[in-house]
Design a protein that fits this description.
Structural class: mainly alpha
Strand content: under 5%
Order of helices and strands: HHHH
Number of strands: 0
Number of helices: 4
Oligomer: single chain
Largest sheet: none
Distance between the termini: 18 Å
Mean pLDDT: 91
């Protein structure tokens, strides 16, 4: 396993746990979809900082360029996440944390590909 892959998994796992933790704290106080969005917002900061400094430390783009590109990448991942989460939660009546876990995994692959080959292009 390459160092980039290791750090991607470590940072992604940390961001996913952050996302799920925020969601777990908020899900009973608001619509689950809104709690998911707030979890994403907090996890975005963790994810960008970790990926820029660890996963893609040899990025050939400026910090601002990477941030803009990563924001687009992350928002695309969140759109995938929110759609999967909502379908699993509302259509299939899955428990909220299980639906969020599956949605996060689905979005992770998309985020890696866009992050590696565009946001933090080498």
């Amino acid at each position: 396993m390459s160092a980039s892959t290791f750090w991607f998994l470590a940072v992604g796992g940390t961001a996913a746990l952050t996302h799920m933790g925020v969601f777990a704290l908020l899900q009973h106080q608001m619509w689950p979809e809104l709690a998911n969005a707030l979890g994403f917002g907090v996890a975005f900061v963790v994810s960008f900082a970790g990926h820029r400094r660890l996963s893609f430390q040899d990025a050939g783009t400026s910090l601002l360029t990477s941030l803009r590109r990563f924001a687009v990448t992350a928002l695309a991942g969140f759109a995938c996440n929110e759609l999967a989460f909502t379908v699993l939660l509302r259509v299939f009546a899955w428990p909220a944390l299980l639906a969020l876990s599956v949605a996060l995994v689905l979005a992770a692959g998309q985020t890696f590909v866009l992050g590696r080959f565009w946001a933090f292009r080498r």
